[in-house]
Design brief:
The protein has 266 residues and is mainly alpha-helical. The chain has helices at residues 8-36, 39-57, 73-103, 105-110, 116-144, 151-164, 166-178, 181-199, 210-215, 219-224, 238-265. It has one domain (16-265). Helix 3 (73-103) packs antiparallel against helix 5 (116-144).
């Protein structure tokens, strides 16, 4: 029989976990600062959705029932472009991972004390920071076009958007380990555009249409549906929660498998 663990062993494991967290903090800080200093990323992830918002919603600022949706045009396009901008921000972690793989940076990190969990946690936190910045900027733009909501509705809508971004965080990591720096740019650009179109970013989807039926099973659709909270209604039904949770679990498993396969080759 094996000997029972001594009192020192739990303390040692606890100390190791604390040491791992301490080692991860400088890398997380480095990742955040590096992303914030990337001017091109700021222009694409923050500036582009803002320009689109004013071009599309500005001429329709007095439209309070966009195509019979019951949602004003400024609110609908604000949330739609929040979905567009935040999806781009979350998936952009894949571009950084692909570039680091090509440069050999990820290989160096694997022989360092930094754990894979801490590495990916830093990527996800950075992506969420950029997504939250995109949200705030578009919220301010929405307010300039007459979007006024009680504080609790802003918070509920934001919380739902943050939850809805979880599958895209996993997708960014998976794509970063599947694609090369040359191929990931077009893949992310085309992927976000397609998800935005199917999700109803540019126009409300007609109930009963083929596109509407497909969108029910796509997480980007439920990101756009977060605007229903702003009307005091239910944003997601049971299907919405199941779709977001299902995609998050499936893409997390995929990200883990492609990471293991990728690192086994290097």
């Amino acid at each position: 029989m094996s000997e029972p663990p001594t009192a020192a062993e739990p303390r040692a494991r606890s100390g190791a976990r604390r040491g791992s967290v301490v080692r991860a903090l400088p890398y997380t800080r480095f990742e955040l600062l590096r992303t914030l200093r990337n001017r091109r990323f700021f222009v694409l992830s923050l500036g582009f959705p803002v320009v689109l918002y004013f071009l599309i919603a500005g001429p329709q600022r007095s439209n309070h029932d966009l195509l019979g949706s019951g949602i004003s045009a400024p609110l609908y396009y604000m949330v739609g472009l929040v979905a567009f901008g935040t999806m781009s921000a979350m998936l952009s972690s894949g571009a950084r991972i692909a570039t680091e793989r090509a440069a050999g940076w990820t290989r160096q990190l694997r022989i360092s004390p930094l754990s894979p969990r801490a590495y990916f946690r830093a990527k996800v936190l950075t992506a969420y920071l950029m997504a939250l910045l995109s949200m705030v900027v578009l919220y301010v733009c929405g307010a300039t076009l007459g979007v006024h909501l009680p504080a609790d509705q802003w918070l509920k809508m934001t919380a739902l958007l943050v939850i809805g971004l979880a599958p895209f965080a996993a997708a960014g990591i998976a794509l970063g380990h599947l694609l090369t720096p040359d191929s990931i740019g077009p893949a992310l650009g085309g992927g976000v555009a397609l998800l935005a179109f199917v999700g109803g970013t540019w126009f409300p989807l007609t109930s009963g249409s083929v596109l509407y039926s497909i969108a029910q099973y796509i997480p980007s659709y439920w990101l756009v549906q977060a605007s229903h909270v702003a009307l005091g209604g239910k944003a997601w039904d049971a299907q919405g929660w199941l779709v977001v949770a299902g995609w998050t679990v499936a893409l997390t498993i995929l990200a883990r498998r492609v990471y293991i396969r990728d690192t086994a080759r290097l």
